[in-house]
Amino acid sequence: MAEEEKIVSDTEVENADLNSSESEGSDTKKKASSKKKDESSKKTKKEIEALKKSLEDSEEKYLRMMAEYDNFRKRSQKEKEATYADAYADAIKEILPIIDNLERAVGVTEAEKLKQGLEMTLKQFAETLKKLGVEEIPANPGDSFDPNIHNAVMHTEDESKGENEIVSVFTKGYTKGDRVIRHPMVMVAN
């Protein structure tokens, strides 16, 4: 039995040594784990700071881009208004000589000279429209009526005229490029 006690004692001693070394290993593991957590925490904090910095940079870029867009929009609007004003002024400048000639015509007392002056003024006006890129839409009595181009304001029944034939033109029509400024107003037969 003494041997058994000795064996047990030796076994207990070995177990105690193992427990002691496990405890020391456990403490070491806990310290290592704690150290890893601290390192991981520091690393995570650095990543968070980097992400915050990146987010701030992105927000600043976004705000700058929005400000640039707003400035571009305002500048474009001003340029558009200036272009319109310049075009308008150029058109009026081309028309003013015609007004001058009409004012001169008012002072003429002889009928033949007045007629001659008005014909010259009409010719000048047609040339001015041509300079501005405005063209007359063809509409003459005898032409065929086209509802896409002409505006029929009156209709007449006349056996001597063909169907949808323009009988009379009340006002001329004009285009600027592909855009119709005014359709010619016409009377259509049958």
- Read across the widest sheet, the strand sequence of neighbours is 1-4-5
Range of helix content:
55-70%
- Distance N to C terminus: 142 Å
Described by strand count, sense and barrel closure, the largest sheet is: 3 strands, antiparallel
Secondary structure: number of strands = 6
Structural class: alpha+beta
User: Could you report the average pLDDT, rounded to the nearest whole number?
Assistant: 85
Q: Overall 3D geometry? A: elongated
Which H/E pattern describes the elements? HHEEEEEE
* Beta content: 15-25%
Helix count equals: 2
In angstroms, what is the radius of gyration?
49 Å
The unreliable regions are: none
What key attributes describe this structure?
190 residues, alpha+beta, three-stranded antiparallel β-sheet, three-stranded mixed β-sheet, 2 helices, 66% helix, elongated
Describe this entry's structure for a reader:
It contains two helices and six strands; from the N terminus they run H-H-E-E-E-E-E-E. A hairpin with a 2-residue loop joins strand 4 (173-176) and strand 5. The strands form two sheets. It has a three-stranded antiparallel β-sheet with strand order 1-4-5. It has a three-stranded mixed β-sheet with strand order 2-6-3, with no helix packed on it. It has 190 residues and is of the alpha+beta class.
Q: What is this structure's SSE topology?
A:
Elements: H1 2-106, H2 111-131, E1 134-137, E2 151-156, E3 165-171, E4 173-176, E5 179-182, E6 185-189
Parallel strand pairs: 2-6
Antiparallel strand pairs: 1-4, 3-6, 4-5
